[in-house]
Amino acid sequence: MIIRSPEPEVKILVDRDPIKTSFEEWARPGHFSRTIAKGPDTTTWIWNLHADAHDFDSHTSDLEEISRKVFSAHFGQLSIIFLWLSGMYFDGARFSNYEAWLSDPTHIGPSAQVVWPIVGQEILNGDVGGGFRGIQRTSGFFQIWRASGITSELQLYCTAIGALVFAALMLFAGWFHYHKAAPKLAWFQDVESMLNHHLAGLLGLGSLSWAGHQVHVSLPINQFLNAGVDPKEIPLPHEFLLNRDLLA
């Protein structure tokens, strides 16, 4: 005789369409606060508008609603981070001397900012070598790009576009998980599922992906660069995965 355990009851952990999307409400600055929604009286209104937007405890005392707002706000913050990264990569692709610096990093300084000749401001531009004049960059982005295996401005453009796409996806995810499929309080209190998501998804898969990139892309390309090979002669990153002769 086979004794079967009862099937676990499937719980619905999301609410469908809990809050209507209102563009009219989004167009009213400070709609979340009765005081701020009245409009600006002093400059303090500007600071309160930014400070109180994420003070969710002042909006409501409903723990589920607060949890949903925090969860969706995380996606919004990720969207801003991706947008910032996209801007940095686009700046390097469009305005920098990255390819010249990559060919001779000891004699050419990194620069990605050229001051336009407006009322004498071009005096800020300096000779960084390689026939390029601009403000020398000290942020370390050039070194990060080289260590990542980026060898051309086209790859910087592609990375900038990819980051922009991810920014749009994160923005959509924040809207979706608040207006279309908002998790219930029970979902936020399920510690096991949250740990599985963070440990397995973010740390596990993220670390494996970055390790694979380091082994199959960054290390081979940096070996070529350290050997003095012209960056334009280095094979594209995907060729290291498909052509085993390059790894020999």
TrEMBL record:
GO CC terms in record: chloroplast thylakoid membrane
Record GO biological process: photosynthesis
Keywords: Membrane, Mitochondrion, Transmembrane, Transmembrane helix
Keyword Mitochondrion: yes
Top-rank lineage group of the source organism: Eukaryota
Stretches that traverse the bilayer: 154-176
Name of protein: Photosystem I P700 chlorophyll a (Chloroplast) (Chloroplast)
Species this protein is from: Populus alba (White poplar)
